[in-house]
Amino acid sequence: MIGVTTSLKSGWRVFPLMRLNVWLAGGTAVRWVSTRPQDIDHVDGVIIGGGDDISPDLYGGKLITSARLDPARDEMEQRLVRAAFEQNKPVLGICRGSQMLNVALGGNLDQDAYGTYLKSRKYWTILPRKTVHVTPGTRLAGLAGTKVMKVNALHSQAVENLGQGLQVSARDDGGMIQAIERVADPMALGVQWHPEHLFYAHRQRALFQALVCAAQARREGENQIQAVRETQEVME
């Protein structure tokens, strides 16, 4: 069972794609929005989805006039990311979700990423037009390989300084960070693109498969621990 955070405004369009990708990977998805309770105890993994910009209040930045904010969602997602780590549950961050993963672990964002990375070509499309270079030796490289990747892009902000325990796992041609990941378990991977739109590409499906496999492994581990405890109680 995978909990998926979505925007109140556009989540109804995006969640069916998320649910399809999770299903193809062997899991079941449940939609989370800020206006309804979210029970992380009843899921085995978390996807932080895309949407509006993250408030710079969360990382000490300054608000820019073009920002579109959702403070209630910010609070929800930051809490869920931290709770997932406390409970050893895997996390996949998508676009805004990748940025939230970074912010929740103490990092910050570049609100004018294309103004900083002038050699990074700006795309705004769900089609795979942007070139991404995967860092060898990373979890992402193990999942999708190190061959140059073509992805979509719907963002203007990007990760700047990394949060605690994170490393860069992909950049675009201009050097802008396009993927981050947690060095230690539980698995936490954030990608700046939208793999849910690229479900026809096996390298993108691999991201959802990794999340579901990690979630399943955790559940099986918990079941084994519970079985041992029950056996000990019977013997006592």
End-to-end C-alpha gap: 34 Å
Gyration radius, rounded: 18 Å
Name given to the CATH architecture: 3-Layer(aba) Sandwich
Number of helical regions: 6
CATH overall fold name: Rossmann fold
Relative helix content: 25-40%
Largest sheet entry: 9 strands, mixed
Strands ordered across the widest β-sheet: 2-1-3-4-11-10-9-6-7
Describe the global form: globular
Mean pLDDT: 92
User: Which structural class matches the secondary elements?
Assistant: alpha/beta
Poorly predicted ranges (pLDDT <50, ≥5 residues)? none
CATH class: Alpha Beta
Using DSSP, what is the number of strands?
Answer: 11
Q: How many structural domains?
A: 1
**H/E topology pattern:** EHEEHEHEHEHEEEEEH
Q: How large a portion of the residues is in β-strands, by DSSP E? A: 15-25%
Description:
The protein is α/β, with parallel strands linked by helices. It has one domain (2-235): Rossmann fold, CATH 3.40.50.880. Helices cover 35% and strands 22% of the residues. The chain has 6 helices and 11 strands. It has helices at 11-24, 71-86, 96-104, 113-116, 139-144, 202-235; strands at 2-5, 29-32, 45-48, 91-94, 109-110, 125-134, 149-153, 158-159, 166-172, 177-182, 188-191. The strands form 2 sheets. The chain has a 9-stranded mixed beta sheet with strand order 2-1-3-4-11-10-9-6-7, with helices on both faces. Strands 5-8 form a two-stranded antiparallel sheet. Helix 2 (71-86) crosses helix 3. The longest helix has 34 residues, at 202-235.
